[in-house]
TrEMBL record:
It holds the Pfam family Vinculin. GO terms for cellular component: adherens junction; catenin complex; cytoplasm. One of its GO terms (molecular function) is actin filament binding. It comes from Pseudonaja textilis (Eastern brown snake). This is Catenin alpha like 1.
């Protein structure tokens, strides 16, 4: 074990109070001992906090402390002796410090008790007692960890021995050598099985445990197959199929051993699964409330109450450890009450021998009241964790990145790091608190989907935090490196989006009313504290409290804005928006008064202004809170409602647009000779789509005076700003030129949005529908511009409003589009020199090369569609239709590539104007969306994902761990290749015997290339666009080639493929079962069909064995055929086992590749039988019908029970592993003594 792993383990143990015990203890035996120790430790801490340890109790503790010290000494000696006897040097080395810590802690707790006897009032001694008790717990966990790691090392050692024996068995050149190699192989497998089964028995339920058991089962099931395949190969060494079958079985066993070792090395069981984390507190709370609501004596015994009480106390103490002092005291007091009520209830139940009494019911009712109170306090704790740790969560990262990337001269490496040190410290400290709060909130979350989202956010934060130090170090080495600065800015953007995702999750967990109540109370507290600091001239305290005050108000705005976005009632929504806007204005005014006070703290006028503004701020916050209950909102006819949207078209107007057929305007005909025609067009469109509550088609008006600096103050798009300027100065020629440029820009945005709507889903599709607003606004805006140019007084205010609205919609649409095709867009701009390359090894140098790469994709699809052998397949017609769409889209890509190159030439000239740059940027977006649409159609052609490429793409997109998915892709590819090789014999009749081998080799090459690119992307913090392009194209090349091969296999082995597919598909109908009768029926049907298929394959094996028992003329091909039937049996069991897990995993690609391999082996088996001279036609018909799973023609002979070879032989001499197992017999009883002493102590 590495130093880093040891440090991580030690850190996890030392701060165990922050995490669930299941995160650090993964075996049932250890959990059974450690959990009571933790419970009693918390009992001791609660008793100390409540000052309930009396002087008399201290006197009784000395004897117990002596027993505990003696027990820890005995346990340490036993643990060290067992480590020495095991022969494991690593265990001996790890056990020495672990037992030493435990031994010292036992003596320290005795010393602490003796100090208390001398000085009963000494608080330090009481705390030392609790610390010593905790160290005993930590030492015990370390000892268990050392022993468990030793067990895992023994299993890995046994697996390596088995792997070596397997290699010797594979290399045996005759039967004698094979038999000699088979004996140590059997011994190694027996040892591995014994050790692994002991571990499996002790492991808690987890995904790793399941995979470990599956791999062990494969190893045990493969013994007869290994023996048969090796004997057959030795007897017929020149038979190709014998060699293929032997290689397949040996490769399967090798991969299973490697997977088993990999699982053991990955800290098996110590990775806490999501289903073990989320909602644990409410789950146990509701369970306990159920017991108290209708108390039954049988459920109130100590063994029934201990677990829920201990779990609730555990999580309450977790919250108490990191909560405010007042909440901490409440939680500890409630835990104390729970322990008292549990003790009383248990005593009463045992006293009355199980007969219900009134006082027991009263005690249960009191306990129920305490539990409800506890639930409310935990809810408050969650809210205050958000208020304390999740305010301004973007700020520390933003300030750090801004300071790191700002230009600075005469600052070297040490100077930059010294400058950033306070910001780095603040950032990581804030991030630690934020992640701690998120983990605690996860415990209270009851919705799995929300919990998964929070879990993903936490994982993303961890990945981003790991990236920051490296980038800052790189920046300190190369201060002027723009590439590192861009990576940091990109990192900041990801951090910001992740924080937004986390806050959206909190919206689903928190009660907004309770949250706002707590927020207002916090604001009042900070107001009072800041005014006190102001009076006492404490600058730092004043700055801290005012900062928290403003951030708290901003957080209210953010939470309520997200709530408003989901509100459906427009009147309620608009009224709440008015209150939010008032609060935002109050925040601005408060910040101004804070700055004034900071500059003039002795000024009485500044103090009065600050007090006035903060009072208004809190009043506006209270108004927002009341507005949630539809109180205190402005009147429906109030003019305040008119300007609340900041020029947004009402949501109902957008809904009306979306519900109607899209309006198709020709942007080329927008410029009219008569500007009034455009205004009429706008009015007509607004009349057509006007919502029921909208009184007129006019845009919302606000009081803005159209003056010279109005455009400058407004955030307008440059083209629109230039157009408004041209109207103001009455430049008709320039106005026409700008209108043409604006129409070209709008045309690109509209075309790109329409294209993108075919490839995106909600909610992104909802944002892209804003292009319809651009369609409506463009003619109206140009018409207004013409009118204002002729008469400046007329409609000048409305022109500015429309300009601002149109600017916003164009920017929103462009932003959404760049998000959809981010890396294609970055690549387009990189190729013309606007963005420096992210990678110096850029293999894609120009747009022409990209077009050639895409053209190869189209040619590859064409080759698949127009192959003569596939024209008769039923799928061919639908594939040809998709191919036509591919051709049309590729032609569109070519046209828009030419257009992009023209725009690139325009901006390559010296000093291009902003209109040309905007046009080029829009053409980049349009080109990127067109290419993405082409790839989307290609994906439709590919159809079902057999190789798990979509899962790989998703994990790559979200920067998740790729190793397991890469392994799945590789394994699925190998299975398809194997199926293709088996089907070559059937190709001679159809003239494609040369095509399949070449395609199979191409699959192998493409798979290796894809894995290399994926690994390169995985280790790159910010992926280069060129690598992403290769990744996108290689995926599809591989998938299309696999598609071509699978189409051929469908034609060759279709009858057998459909037979097993019909069984597997039955499992999909129960994938989302809820336990209803229909689900049970479907499950029963699948089980019956699966059993029937297995019986048919066993029948095939029996029939073939019976047929081959005849003369010696079948001797040569006999073993070959039997090997194939054995493979079929093994594959059938594996497929049916995976299919039964569809309702859990839903990863169809795990089964798809196996189905094609199974059908290929079935076809190959029939071909083998057909090639054998003298083989009965009746046998062939029976085999075919059984492989087709035909229920109407069941062969009458049922296979007899197969003889099972006893391949487990006991060793004559015990190995080290057996010695270690025997040595561990007395390990847990020794530790039980410590636990019993602790239980009786506190």
């Amino acid at each position: 074990m590495t130093y880093g792993e040891n440090m991580a383990k030690t850190e996890a143990v030392e701060c165990f109070s922050l995490y669930d015990i299941s995160a650090i203890v993964y075996t049932k035996s250890t959990h059974r001992i450690i959990l009571p120790m933790i419970a009693e430790l918390y009992n001791l801490i609660i008793a100390i906090e409540q000052r309930e340890i009396t002087h008399e109790a201290f006197a009784n503790l000395e004897t117990t402390a002596e027993e505990l010290a003696k027990a820890t000494e005995e346990f340490s000696c036993i643990a060290r002796r067992l480590a020495e006897e095991s022969g494991d040097e690593v265990l001996e080395k790890e056990m020495v410090p672990a037992t030493q810590t435990l031994l010292v802690s036992g003596k320290n707790i005795l010393l602490a008790v003796q100090k208390l006897l001398i000085q009963p009032d000494a608080c330090n001694s009481v705390e030392e007692l609790a610390v010593s008790a905790k160290r005993i717990l930590v030492g015990t966990i370390k000892v268990f960890w050392a022993q468990e790691d030793s067990t895992i090392r023994q299993i890995i050692q046994a697996a390596r021995w088995l792997f070596g024996c397997l290699l010797m068995l594979d290399s045996a050149e005759d039967v004698s050598a094979m038999l000699s190699a088979f004996r140590p192989f059997s011994e190694a497998l027996l040892l591995l099985t014994n050790l692994t089964e002991r571990l499996l028995w002790d492991l808690k339920e987890s995904l790793q445990r399941k995979h470990l058991a599956e791999n062990l089962q494969i190893l045990k099931n493969s013994i007869p197959m290994l023996f048969t395949a090796k004997v057959s190969h030795l007897q017929h060494p020149h038979e190709q199929q014998m060699n293929l079958s032997k290689n397949y079985i040996f490769d399967l066993v090798k991969s299973s051993i490697k997977k088993l070792i990999s699982l053991l090395r990955s800290n098996i069981g110590r990775t806490k699964q999501l289903h073990e984390r989320y909602g644990l507190f409410p789950q146990y709370l509701h369970q306990f409330l159920g017991l108290m609501f209708s108390p039954q004596p049988i459920h109130l015994h100590e063994d029934k109450l201990n677990l829920p009480v201990e779990v609730l106390i555990f999580y309450c103490m977790l919250f108490a450890d990191s909560s405010r002092a007042t909440l901490k005291q409440k939680l500890i007091q409630l835990c104390h009450h729970l322990l008292k009520f549990r003790k009383v209830i248990v005593m009463d139940v045992s006293t009355f021998n199980g007969f219900p009494k009134e006082n027991i019911k009263d005690e249960c009712l009191a306990m129920k009241t305490e539990l409800e109170h506890l639930n409310q306090v935990i809810r408050s704790a969650v809210i205050y964790h958000v208020l304390d740790n999740l305010v301004d969560i973007k700020g520390p990262m933003r300030r750090l990145i801004e300071a790191a990337t700002e230009p600075c001269s005469h600052v070297g490496k040490e100077g930059l790091l010294r400058k950033l040190k306070p910001l780095v410290t603040t950032f990581f400290s804030h991030s630690t608190q934020m992640l701690k709060a998120a983990n605690l909130i996860l415990v209270t979350c009851t919705e799995r989907e929300t919990a998964e989202d929070i879990e993903q956010c936490i994982e993303q934060f961890h990945r981003l935090l790991a990236t920051v130090p490296g980038l800052l170090s790189e920046l300190s080495l190369f201060p002027g490196n723009d590439d590192v600065s861009k990576k940091l800015n990109f990192l900041s953007q990801i951090w910001s989006s992740t924080t937004e995702s986390l806050m959206m999750c909190l919206d689903k967990i928190l009660d907004l009313h309770e949250f706002l109540d707590a927020s207002v109370q916090e604001m009042m507290r900070h107001k009072e504290a800041s005014e006190k600091a102001l009076d006492m001239q404490h600058f730092e305290h004043f700055g801290g409290h005012t900062s928290r005050l403003c951030r708290q108000a901003t957080q209210i705005v953010e939470f309520v804005n997200r709530f408003v976005a989901k509100a459906r009632d427009p009147i309620f929504r608009n009224g709440l928006l008015v209150l939010i806007k008032q609060l935002k204005n109050a925040i601005t005014q408060t910040e101004i008064s804070i700055n004034w006070c900071t500059a003039r703290m002795t000024s009485l006028q500044a103090k009065e202004e600050y007090s006035k503004r903060t009072k208004e701020l809190i009043e506006f916050a209270c108004n927002v809170r009341k507005g949630l209950d539809e109180c205190n909102q402005p009147d429906i006819l109030s003019p305040l409602r008119d300007g609340v949207h900041d020029f947004n078209i009402p949501m109902d107007f957008l809904d009306a647009l979306a519900s109607q057929d899209p309006m198709e305007f020709s942007t080329q005909s927008f410029i009219k000779e008569n500007s009034s025609n455009n205004a009429e067009l706008l009015v007509e469109s607004l009349d057509k789509f006007k919502p029921a509550y909208c009184p007129s088609p006019e845009f919302p008006r606000i009081n803005i005076i159209y003056q010279k600096d109005a455009v400058r103050r407004a955030n307008l798009h440059p083209l629109i700003s230039e157009l408004t300027t041209a109207t103001r100065i009455h430049d008709a020629i320039h106005l026409n030129s700008i209108c043409a440029d604006l129409l070209e820009l709008a045309n690109c945005c509209i075309d790109a949005a329409k294209e993108a709507l075919r490839i995106v889903e909600s909610p992104m599709s909802d944002k892209l529908l804003h292009y319809k607003e651009i369609v409506v606004l463009i003619p109206h805006f140009i018409g207004l511009a013409g009118e204002v140019e002729a008469n400046p007084v007329l409609n000048s205010e409305q022109l500015l409003q429309t300009a601002m609205l149109l600017s916003k919609k164009i920017d929103e649409t462009k932003h959404s589009l760049t998000f959809v095709v981010s890396f294609w867009y970055r690549l387009a701009k990189q190729l013309v020199g606007f963005m420096p390359p992210c990678s110096s090894h850029d293999e894609i140098q120009s747009l022409d090369e990209i077009m050639k790469i895409l053209e190869t994709l189209v040619q590859l699809i064409s080759k698949v569609v127009h192959s003569d052998e596939r024209k008769l397949l039923p799928e061919c017609s639908s594939l040809q239709e998709i191919f036509l769409r591919v051709q049309i889209q590729f032609t569109c890509v070519q046209t828009r590539t030419k257009y992009l190159l023209e725009k690139a030439q325009d901006i390559s000239k010296p000093h291009p104007d902003f209109a040309k740059q905007d046009s080029f940027d829009a053409s980049c977006i349009l080109w990127s969306v067109t290419i993405q649409a082409l790839l989307n159609i290609v994906d439709q052609f590919i159809g079902r994902d057999v190789l798990a490429l979509k899962e790989l793409q998703t994990k790559m997109k979200h920067r998740l761990c790729l190793q397991s998915t890469l392994t799945t892709v590789s394994e699925n590819s190998v299975r398809i290749q194997e199926a293709a090789k088996l089907s070559i014999l059937l190709c001679t009749r159809q003239g494609i015997e040369n095509e399949i081998p070449s395609q199979t080799e191409q699959i192998k090459i493409l798979t290796e290339s894809l894995l290399q690119v994926a690994n390169a992307l995985a280790v790159s913090p910010i992926a280069a666009p060129s690598l992403l392009v290769q990744f996108e194209v290689l995926q599809r090349k591989l998938a299309i080639t696999v598609k071509a091969v699978l189409l051929q296999l469908n034609g060759l082995n279709g009858e057998y493929l459909s037979s097993i597919q019909s069984v597997v598909k039955l499992s999909q109908f129960i994938s989302h079962g809820t336990g209803s009768d229909s689900d049970l029926i479907q499950k029963e049907t699948f089980g019956r069909k699966a059993a029937f298929l297995k019986a048919n394959i066993q029948t095939v094996d029996k029939v073939i064995r019976d047929a081959l028992e005849e003369p010696s003329k079948f001797l040569k091909p006999k073993e070959n055929v039997l090997t194939t039937t054995g493979n079929l049996l093994l594959l059938t069991d594996e497929i049916m086992g995976l299919a039964g897990q569809f309702q859990l995993d839903q990863h169809h690609h795990l089964v798809d590749s196996l189905l094609y391999e199974w059908s290929a082996k079935a076809g190959y088996l029939v071909r083998q039988l057909q090639s054998m001279k003298g083989m009965s036609e009746t046998v062939l018909q029976v085999v075919r019908r059984c492989l087709q799973n035909d229920e109407e023609h069941i062969y009458s002979i049922q296979p007899s029970s197969l003889k099972k070879e006893d391949c487990t032989q006991h060793q004559n001499t015990p190995s080290q592993g057996h010695k270690a197992i025997k040595a561990g017999e007395g390990f847990f009883p020794a530790c039980n003594k410590i636990t019993m002493v602790i239980l009786t102590s506190f």
